[in-house]
Amino acid sequence: MLPWYSEDTPDQWGFTGNPLGFGFTDEGMGLFLDGYYGAPPNLRWGILLPHFEGKFQTSTTRNAAMVPHQGFVKAYMHNGYLTSLKEVVHFYNTRDVYRHHVLSGHCPKGTIEKVTCWPEAEDPNNENTTIGKLGLTSEEEDDIVVFLKTLVDGFKP
Ligand code: HEM
Question: Which pTM value belongs to this model?
Answer without folding.
Answer: 0.90
